[in-house]
Amino acid sequence: MNKYEIIGIVGEGAYGIVYKAKCKETGEFVGIKKFKEPDDDEIAKKTIMREVRMLRMLKYPNIVTLKEAFKRKGRLYLVFEYVEKNLLEVLEENSVGIDAKRLRYFAYQMIKGVTFCHRSNIIHRDIKPENLLINPADNTLKICDFGFSRPLPRDFRGPRLEGGKMTDYVATRWYRSPELLLGYTDYGPEVDMWAIGCIMGELSDGQPLFPGDSEMDQLYLIQKVLGPLTKDQLESFNKNPRFVGLKFPEISKPETLEKRYMTSLSKKALQLMIGLLKMDPAERLTGEQALRHPYFDDIREPEVEEELTSLIAPVQRPIYSSQSRITSYGTKFGTTYMPGQLIQ
Q1: Dist. CA 72–CA 3, nearest whole Å
Q2: pLDDT mean over 45-73
């Protein structure tokens, strides 16, 4: 720690504090994440070690670089390249959204970074504006915070690997896909693609696409725009103990993405967003498909995309089954849900 001069605090979370610092030898600015003592907190310890492990594996221009990790006086420190802002701060500065050119460039970089993760057999599981760092000088975007990331079973279609099931409570609610909200534990990379679709909408007009107050409210808001859950999803909803006694109000005419974004998104941007926000994850665009979308024709980097798709064989999509998606929460609600009602 003696090699760095602390300049100030730039963020604080459940597990620690992030400082802006300067390397005394090189003059380079870095971000230092100082973790709270995790010895008695197994969840915190697991999250920290997962982030270190993932970032050591993932080296890519659109993923934040972990420079070093060390312990001092029992505390773990992670040293990252310093990136001045995150996308949430950009949104706060642009309350009605950002210009179309920047939106497209950010979307392209998000998809490149996430595709690299997926081709490396990793799901991020918490893509949101706070976890997307932005360099204002050149609008470079880098994905950060891999504490919730998880390696994927190599092949969902074969026998389930040990530890193949995943926790459902990941991703900030507003960017959480229907399969996560319904408690599925055999989801795949599609959850990251859904989050990118949500962020595209938010970048276009400055407003969150689905700002739900609870899982139930989130599912209702999604259906107000995209239409009803699939038959299999509805079956999962009805069987999930978390939603016992609840039902959705009838939605006669969904708002649709076309109506909402007809003035803030180009036709090609809207087509891409629709492909990312398919209710059925099996129909959602993959990273490779999204990169080939005509929306990116003017900024496409063919050599980069070719390198991405040649990394390793792509992870296969899971076969979704309503029986395998249900988790037991042990909590029941004996009320009828009404829009705006807060359900913990």
Answers
A1: 13
A2: 91
- The pLDDT, as a whole number, for residue 233 is 95
Q: What is the spatial distance between Cα 110 and Cα 127, in angstroms, rounded to a whole number? A: 9
Compute the half-sphere exposure of residue 314: CA atoms within 13 Å on the CB side of its CA: 15
The one-letter amino acid at 164: G
Nearest Cα neighbor of 318 from 287, 277, 281 is 281
CA gap 189, 287 in Å, rounded: 9
**C-alpha distances in angstroms, 235 versus 228, 240, 338?**
12, 9, 20
Question: 100-119 and 302-309 are packed helices; what angle lies between their axes, rounded to 10 degrees?
Answer: 20
Looking at this protein, which amino acid is placed at residue 253? K
Contact call for residues 157 and 319 (beta carbons, < 8 A): yes
DSSP string, 280-338: SGGGSPPHHHHHTSGGGTTT--HHHHHHHHTSSPPPPPPPP-GGGG---------S---
- Mean pLDDT taken over the chain: 85
Domains of the chain, residue spans: 4-81, 85-325
- Looking at domain 4-81, its CATH architecture is 2-Layer Sandwich (3.30)
- Identity of the amino acid at 131: N
- 39, 41, 99, 126: the catalytic one is 126
Q: Does the active-site annotation cover 297? A: no
* Residues 13/51, Cβ–Cβ less than 8 Å: no
Sheet containing 29-35: order of strands: 4-12, 16-23, 29-35, 75-81, 66-72
pTM comes to: 0.85
d(Cα 216, Cα 331) in Å, to the nearest integer? 13
Spatial neighbors of 300 by CB under 8 A, at least 6 apart, are 291
289 contact partners, CB below 8 Å, separation of at least 6 = 275
Q: For domain 85-325, is the CATH number 1.10.510.10?
A: yes
Give the separation between CA 51 and CA 144, rounded to whole angstroms.
9
C-alpha torsion angle, residues 284, 286, 292, 298 (rounded to 10)? 80
For residues 167 and 300, the model is more confident at 300
